[in-house]
């Protein structure tokens, strides 16, 4: 594939023109629009830019960081500048993770098309590369960086500099001996294949060689039976058949003769260990593998808080990009805060703050376009409506006209249901969650219908956080006064047209678990602030679990989190809360847990809860888990690391001192962390060989997070990469963990090599 890329770079007309470079306008905002000269580098993997054609250039972006290319008409920013800039000459480079989009405007439609076609081609080539092809490309990139004078050869001085860039601290004599061994032409430089051989010598995996030889009779190859023994004994794949072992040999053995003889060479063995089959994440859990025919309340649902915000909660930008990113990462519940806007058009923003405003109809159109690009399972629009009667009617019209057949506007069979429908029954449907009138209500909220606004997220959140959560609950009489006072200020009238679009998800206030059981129905849903939900878990954990077996719960971040920080969703999942809304624009540990949890089941945004969180007679208490849960002991041998990235790529002398931290998140008693020692000055192939041990009471709820840190004795250790996954999706045996960045983007080929062993605890289950 890397050679295919090189072929295209010399033959494809668009790519040839991109390598010559073009002047385009870079647009950051309505006031920042500047001409820049963009050029695709000869490696075909990076785009640089300069102020002018022959000016000093610097990297703009890497092709591997690009998710997709959009035309100008799909750019929120470029659409706002149609009077100044022609949309058909514009396009947008969309990056993986949370990096801001790059909006560009070319000098002509044809030039814009050249860049769009060329970038699409390059992105397709990169995304279709397998592990070996990515490694080849990664190696080619390093050769380009190390070859300082760009003559296609590398002297020993250039190799020494490259080793520092690659995070390798190596004895000069040993490095020179490897250099001489690879220099088969005896030219005093390394070219092409010679550099590849030098790299192979540099990355020789002694620990993998030792493992290979322990199962190989002759130390040269694994026969079909030897490989089958390895899969059954070490990889704990007890049901593995000869047919499956043969399939793996065909898949990973590089030589045709090896495939014909049904044997696996050392290179093939390493290729298997680095593949998806050798990954810590069980490939059986990657597609949709769970029962999707149970009621909605039996699933954890990937949910977003204040989805329109791409920054903080007070002054941040509101953008439809927030909805695009959330939906494309598998989020199935997005939040829309709607207020009266100018010219009769409702707007979306964080009320009573300085956040910018976007049109409600643009949000609905964006949801319609992106709702089912990642997952076919239902999307929930969580409406917080603060509009007048007239603008509520406008909202209803937009929802009906823009969403069309996607909008669920009646019960599935036209009769009153007895339980919530399943994700399978609601495929490709958009559901509205919000206030709803009943026959008994006279077009006005009853007293209990006003209360959610008091406890809601957007009625002066900071004051309410203090009033309702950090202080004790007010007395009933005092609470009634607060409600009446609120009513005097504003008595919202709910529009029947909007109310009628709420089918299965009627928002109601929560008073107590007893009150919910006696007065509410399965199609009603309550929202809880994180503070209130955590308090309820401590005070009445089992009641909360039982409540969540028949009714949906949504939890949202504290109003005090004005910086858009997050809380740990695990605490709420432990009680069976289905919709734990996250500030998805903010990377960090909490989002790693959320992303890791929803990585399973096809990334569809729905994960079936364990059976003890679906049983309405469940005795489970997240704070005090007892039998019949079978505790397990986890042994993790952290063996080695491979090609860990440098934290400061510009600082040639700095080499990382890596350590591995393993964290377990689950019920409170299972939450734990341990770490290895650090390896000094080696980010390229550090070896730890340390074993960590954990005992877990409720493995069905446990999440594992592997974090590689750069040890710093003077300050906090620096983050290098992480990988998070559910306990139930973990494969045993010798496994590679392919690291992700803070933004969840692959750091290929960075990985750590571990041995995983899970044992059933024979001591009993008591905590």
From TrEMBL:
One of its GO terms (molecular function) is phosphatidylinositol phospholipase C activity. Residues 444-485 are annotated as: Disordered. It is a peripheral membrane protein. Its main location: cytoplasm. Gene3D superfamilies: C2 domain, EF-hand, Phosphatidylinositol (PI) phosphodiesterase, Pleckstrin-homology domain (PH domain)/Phosphotyrosine-binding domain (PTB). Its EC number is 3.1.4.11. Its cofactor is Ca(2+). Residues 444-454 have a biased composition (Acidic residues). The keyword Ligase does not apply. Residues 134-169, 170-205 form the EF-hand domain. Hydrolyzes the phosphatidylinositol 4,5-bisphosphate (PIP2) to generate 2 second messenger molecules diacylglycerol (DAG) and inositol 1,4,5-trisphosphate (IP3). DAG mediates the activation of protein kinase C (PKC), while IP3 releases Ca(2+) from intracellular stores. Required for acrosome reaction in sperm during fertilization, probably by acting as an important enzyme for intracellular Ca(2+) mobilization in the zona pellucida-induced acrosome reaction. May play a role in cell growth. Modulates the liver regeneration in cooperation with nuclear PKC. This is Phosphoinositide phospholipase C. The gene is PLCD4.
């Amino acid at each position: 594939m890397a050679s295919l890329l090189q072929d295209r770079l010399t033959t494809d007309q668009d790519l040839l023109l991109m390598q010559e470079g073009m002047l385009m306008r870079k647009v950051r905002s309505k006031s920042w629009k500047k001409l820049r000269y963009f050029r695709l580098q000869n490696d075909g993997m990076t785009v640089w830019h300069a102020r002018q054609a022959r000016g000093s250039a610097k990297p703009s972006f890497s092709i591997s960081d690009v998710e997709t290319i959009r035309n100008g008409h799909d750019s929120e920013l470029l659409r706002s500048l149609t009077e100044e800039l022609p949309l058909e000459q514009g396009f947008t480079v969309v990056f993986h993770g949370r990096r801001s989009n790059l909006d560009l405007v070319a000098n002509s439609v044809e030039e814009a098309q050249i860049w769009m076609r060329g970038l699409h081609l390059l992105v397709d080539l990169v995304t279709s590369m397998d592990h070996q092809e990515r490694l080849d490309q990664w190696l080619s990139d390093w050769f380009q960086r190390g070859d300082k004078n760009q003559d296609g050869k590398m002297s020993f001085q250039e190799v020494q500099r490259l080793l520092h860039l690659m995070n390798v601290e190596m004895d000069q004599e040993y490095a020179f001996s490897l250099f001489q061994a690879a220099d088969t032409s005896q030219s005093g430089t390394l070219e092409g294949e010679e550099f590849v051989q030098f790299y192979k010598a540099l990355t020789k995996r002694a620990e993998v060689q030792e493992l290979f030889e322990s199962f190989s009779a002759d130390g040269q190859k694994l026969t079909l039976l030897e490989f089958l023994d390895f899969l059954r004994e070490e990889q704990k794949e007890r049901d593995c058949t000869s047919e499956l072992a043969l399939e793996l040999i065909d898949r990973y053995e590089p030589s045709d003769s090896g495939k014909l003889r049904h044997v696996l060479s050392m290179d093939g063995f390493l290729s298997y260990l680095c593949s998806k089959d050798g990954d810590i994440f069980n490939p059986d859990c990657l597609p949709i593998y769970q029962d999707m025919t149970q009621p909605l309340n039996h699933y954890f649902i990937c949910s977003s808080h204040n989805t329109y915000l791409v920054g903080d909660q007070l002054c941040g930008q509101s953008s439809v990009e927030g909805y695009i990113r959330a939906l494309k990462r598998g989020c199935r519940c997005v939040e829309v805060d709607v207020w009266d806007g100018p010219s009769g058009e409702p707007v979306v923003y964080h009320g009573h703050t300085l956040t910018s405003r976007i049109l409600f109809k643009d949000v609905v159109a964006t949801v319609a376009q992106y709702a089912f690009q990642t997952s076919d399972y239902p999307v929930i629009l969580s409406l917080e409506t603060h509009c007048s009667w007239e603008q509520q009617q406008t909202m209803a019209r937009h929802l009906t006209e823009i969403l069309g057949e996607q909008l669920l506007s009646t019960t599935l069979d036209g009769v009153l249901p007895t339980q919530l429908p399943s994700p399978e029954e609601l495929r490709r449907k958009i559901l509205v969650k919000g206030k709803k009138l009943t026959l008994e209500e006279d077009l006005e909220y009853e007293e209990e219908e006003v209360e959610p606004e008091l406890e809601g997220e957007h009625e002066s959140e900071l004051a309410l956080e203090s009033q309702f959560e950090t202080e004790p609950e007010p007395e009933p009489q005092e609470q009634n006064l607060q409600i009446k006072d609120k009513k005097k200020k504003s008595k919202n009238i709910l529009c029947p047209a909007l109310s009628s679009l709420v089918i299965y998800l009627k928002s109601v206030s929560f008073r107590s678990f007893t009150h919910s059981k006696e007065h509410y129905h399965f199609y009603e849903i309550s929202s809880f602030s994180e503070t209130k939900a955590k308090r309820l878990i401590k005070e009445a954990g089992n009641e909360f679990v039982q409540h969540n077996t028949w009714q949906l719960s949504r939890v949202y971040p504290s109003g005090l989190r004005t910086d858009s920080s997050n809380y740990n969703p695990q605490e709420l999942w432990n009680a069976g809360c289905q919709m734990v809304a996250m500030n998805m624009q903010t990377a960090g540990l909490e989002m790693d847990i959320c992303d890791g949890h929803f990585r399973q089941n096809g990334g569809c945004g729905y994960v079936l809860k364990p059976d003890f969180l679906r049983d309405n007679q469940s005795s489970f208490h997240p704070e005090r888990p007892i039998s019949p849960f079978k505790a397990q002991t986890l042994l993790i041998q952290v063996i080695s690391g491979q090609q860990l990235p440098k934290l400061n790529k510009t600082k040639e002398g700095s080499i990382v001192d890596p350590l591995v931290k393993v964290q377990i998140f689950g019920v409170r008693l299972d939450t734990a962390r341990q770490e290895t020692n650090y390896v000094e000055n080696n980010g390229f192939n550090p070896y730890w060989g340390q074993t960590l041990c954990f005992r877990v009471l409720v493995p069905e709820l446990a999440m594992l997070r592997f974090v590689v840190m750069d040890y710093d004795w003077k300050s906090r250790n620096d983050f290098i990469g992480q990988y998070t996954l559910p306990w139930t999706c973990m494969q045993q045996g010798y496994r590679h963990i392919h690291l992700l960045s803070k933004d969840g983007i692959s750091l290929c080929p960075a990985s750590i090599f571990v041995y995983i062993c899970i044992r059933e605890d024979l001591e009993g289950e008591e905590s």
